[in-house]
Specification:
Blueprint: E1 8-13, H1 29-44, H2 49-54, E2 57-68, E3 77-87, E4 91-100, E5 103-116, H3 126-132
Antiparallel strand pairs: 1-3, 2-5, 3-4, 4-5
């Protein structure tokens, strides 16, 4: 089992704009929720993505594998748990799970690549690697 200290938690509330006509979270919004959680985790690791972009590097989602387990509804409080599963030269793989209390609603494995502004893959800078290690599954 992974070390709980390595899991980042992001809490959010489901708003009307997140739902469909039935008051259920629209499926694509889970991708927004996990993006916000991952971006918050990176910010809390003291990685400045604006400065990174100004230096010509960006993180780009390369692959998403997702499963929908149950529906969230209007006004639910959700917790997105994010963990860095693997980091290689130019990519990172994250596990992200959305819960309502202890109920798993959505799970995803996200592959993120570090790329130059031209779109070509490039190595993740060593200082950023070190900052993100706190959220690694083996921490």
């Amino acid at each position: 089992m992974s070390d709980a200290r390595a899991i980042h938690e992001y809490v959010l509330r489901v708003f009307y704009e997140d739902t469909d006509m039935a008051g259920i979270v629209y499926y694509a919004n889970y991708l927004k929720f996990i993006e916000r959680a991952r971006s918050t985790m990176v910010r809390e690791a003291d990685v400045d993505q604006r400065a990174l972009a100004q230096s010509g590097l960006i993180f780009a989602v390369r692959k998403v594998v997702a499963d929908y387990h149950a529906s969230a509804q209007l006004d639910d409080q959700l917790i997105v748990k994010t963990q860095l599963l693997q980091m290689s030269g130019a990519k990172m793989i994250f596990s992200q799970n959305v819960f309502r209390m202890d109920e798993l609603l959505f799970s995803a494995e996200i592959t993120v690549a570090c790329v130059k502004s031209s779109g070509a893959p490039t190595r993740i800078p060593s200082d950023i690697r070190a900052k993100l290690q706190q959220f690694a599954a083996h921490a």
